[in-house]
Amino acid sequence: MFLPTPEDLKKIRHELGLTQNEVASRAGVSQPLIARIEAGDVDPRLSTMRKIFNAFDLARKERVEVRKIMHTPVIHTSSDHSVEQAARILEEHGFSQMPVIDGGVPVGSISTDRIVHSMTDQDIKKLSNLPVGDIMDESFPTVSPNTDANSVSRIVEQHPAVLVLEKGKVVGVVTKHDIMKMLRG
Question: Which CATH architecture has domain 67-184?
Answer without folding.
Answer: Roll (3.10)
